[in-house]
Model the fold of this input.
Amino acid sequence: MRLKKYPLNLKIRITMNTDITFIIADNQDITRMGMHGYISAIFSGCRMIDVTDKKELMLALVECNDSVVILDYTLFDINGIEEFLIIEKRFSESSLDIVFQ
Done:
């Protein structure tokens, strides 16, 4: 897992991979609906998975470890950077990008 500082790298990876999966990690319905509309308009045919807590996120990552995670960390039930580091170790062999919103 790489916490991206440069959006260009993520854009290149997404545009070259039409089978990309987006995991939308947010517990607000309105935000998830907005992200679905935005992503669908730009990346037609992509897969989207909604998760509303850390347990669902971990299950989704096991299923789709080559994915882009869009995470609202201020509303999500992850308690600090230490938990991100644990996720990073667990999925270190995967091609995973996390985008903070």
Q: What stands out?
A: Strands lie at 2-3, 21-25, 47-51, 67-71, 97-100. The chain is about 45% helix and 20% strand.
